[in-house]
Amino acid sequence: MTLIRKKMAGALAGIFVCAALTVLAAPGLSMAITAGEEEKIAEKFLKIVKAHFEIIDDPFIADYISGTGNKILSTFPKKAFDYHFYVIKENSYNAFAMPAGHIFINSGLIAAMENENELAGILSHEIAHVQLRHISQSIERGSKVSLLTAAGLLAGIFLGPGMGAAASNALAVGSLAAGHSIMLAHSREHEVQADQIGLKYLMKAGYSGAGLLTILKKMRDKTWFGPDHIPVYLTTHPAVKDRMAYIETQMKRRPVLKTRPDHPDFEKAKTRIAALYGDARLALNRFKNDTRKDPQNPMALYGYGLALAESGQNAQAEGFFLKALGERPFEPDILTDLGRVYYLQGDYGQALSALEGALAIRPGHIQALFFLARTRMAMKDYDAALDAVETVADRRPDYQNVLYLLGKTHGKKGDMGNAHYWLGLHHRKKEEWKTAIFHLKRALAGDFSAAKKEKIQKMIADASKKKRERERELEEEEERKKYQTWSKQRNFMVKVPRPWVADRRDVE
Length: 508
Prior knowledge:
The chain contains 25 helices and three strands. By secondary structure, the protein is mainly alpha-helical. Strand 2 (95-98) and strand 3 form a beta hairpin. The longest helix is centred in the last third of the chain and has 46 residues, at 450-495.
């Protein structure tokens, strides 16, 4: 790509991201979309996110981020929506809020933070965007595009490079072509409003605005190599310099007398993100060096154990988990991960001891219960395994593979009706429609009530409909690819001279 084309691409990208908080806005409109429409856009947006990124399904990290957000939300007199917090496995610096209370933050941004104040500052700003319904206000009621297109445009703007240039530009250009205007001034106004409201309730929650100021400075001051590397956050949240000046002024006017200390889980969440969801090689080197520098640092020992286990070195990981427990003997998360490596090594007795120890300290620990169920299954204690996995399913029905484990456990107990039912739900959740229909049809032979069987029949009908829709989408995609191939070949034949036609200069 030439320098001019690169500059043009950068300029276009700038235009797209300037739409951040004024998406699909039209001058003079005061009417926003309904709460129900926000929910539909958020649902479609979430599907796009899951198609292009990995959302970290780690109960400890998810609970910690949600808990921090809820501390801030508890100070609001009224919540506009039920809030949901997500951590995207992505090294770039980004955080954003979508309609209906869905807030996303990249793991890379959390890894760059030094304290909980920084995390709280980012979350409070995004919560304020949702409370003020900024995106809702920016979508034109009178001539808005379809909800799917709106979700696509938002994805193209907020997800940035992680979507891939072709995907994000296609989403953004397709929507912009619908003739919707973009007003940068309005998005700046939204940023000011979000800072005003966010800081007010951040400070009410006992945090200092210094955290938000610090993380903004980190993003602004870091050296970025070209426009493709600039954090999406800086472009979707404009006027950073003005925002920083405003935050500093407000901190002088309204100083927090007693700042909330970091929760102990902040450092543990960062450790888990670095060890399990970052670059594996870098994680091993980092925690190896950390343990050499400070052999008694429990988080360095724990992090190295996690990184070793993630790379399959379970025997070595066991040693570092035991060292970490020597520094913090009553740490349920370390005990849980120790139990996990014992389970993976086939040492079920030791696994059981560690996992039960974790649950004695923290009853209801999701990961401890999940691996306890797997350990009990391996030991052929199916009743105890079912008790444990049902507890996980009741508390965290969306937890990774819990539905699959439920199905397998019922199958081992000989209850094939429930086995097929839960396996059907597992594949339905993964949108594997053919396999879901297979299991749900067989579940109908189970000893269920008439109401339950009617529910299963409805799920089969819905899965069959989704399967047909997916097949049509694949057919349309295949036809589109064929047309593109034909079109390219046709253009080539038109433009390229036929080899058997002599050049006029050859006969002159």
